[in-house]
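note to self — DONT lose this again. spent like an hour looking for the file last time. sequence + predicted structure for the chain T wanted, 184 res
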Amino acid sequence: MIRESRVIARLLLDGADDQTWRQAIVIDNALQKRSIESAKRQANMIKSRLTLVKPELWELIVSGSSGETVQALLAASIKHSRLLGDFMNRVVKSHWGEFQKRLTPRDWDDYLDLCAQLDPTVNAWTDSTRNKLKQIVFKILAEAGYIHSTASPELAPVSVEPAVKQYLIKHSEQYVLNCMEVTP
């Protein structure tokens, strides 16, 4: 959701009040969604991710190179979802270390089994929830260039963009940086 995230980051940088927010999302349909409810839902989801990071990262999302934008969004997503971050840190990083060059659906299932050992409520998730989460995580990894595509989840080497890395170090976001630095 790069384009949509840029719109939301711009609104946040501009300090949009409730009226300006409503005008952009509902009236102007800045996210270009088919329904108002879909636009509001997506805007709120993106906003909840982006408000976890500082305006410096919003600036990278709005004005950075495509690589900086994608990685800034990934950093915000990791901060928003420990499930994503831990999957990258545990599974993707271990695949690189073990020279396994491809993620599989079984990797996701095994990861969720591990999560269930730490939090038994994971066992209560339906198969559709588990599959939807896998689709989202794999899509994020593909958009960020960590895998070639969701259809072909072969690992791709990634270096964290210097501007994103600098932001993460400056703001003591070591967990996020560790999750992003999976390539040896």
